[in-house]
Amino acid sequence: MGDPDGGGNGPWNGHVLIVTLNVTLETIERRFPSRIEAVNEAAAAVAEFMNRLGIGEDIAFGVDMAVREAVTNAVIHGNKFDSAKQVELKLRNTPDVFEISVHDQGSGFNPNEVPDPTKDENILKTSGRGIFFMRNFMDAVDWSMNPKGGTSVRMIKKI
After folding, report:
1. CATH code, domain with 127
2. What pLDDT, in 10s, does the model give residues 15-66?
3. 88 to each of 10, 35, 75, 112, how far by Cα in Å?
4. Domain residues for 147?
């Protein structure tokens, strides 16, 4: 690229400027009633989105598990099966990343207070593995509380 003023002696002499943009290629938003069927409906929407992106089965399996756990948690623990509340699913991709957000309308929770399912005293418990699965299947997972109510979990998978 060189010196933009063409003189060859400026601060750009011998430097190359590379600009990358975090361009969202596609975004989809869906809402589901707080019923257990929402888990399969959300998983189907994510599977269709991943198919369009050409995401392979090895990645798709883990993403499917993480989505099912996140939506199950939203329906059961967040919204407590309240039919007046919905689960919101947002899918977004950039050239490098597939992002999934699941939002409930519940009272919220602190994910750090969920017991570690790998500890001896929790191994035989029948619940408590959802967050563990999400963290292990995805490249990044974080939670946020909405001041107006509800919890959002954002999960990122590099593609």
Report:
1. 3.30.565.10
2. 555 555 567 788 999 999 999 999 999 999 999 999 999 999 999 999 999 9
3. 52, 13, 10, 23
4. 26-158
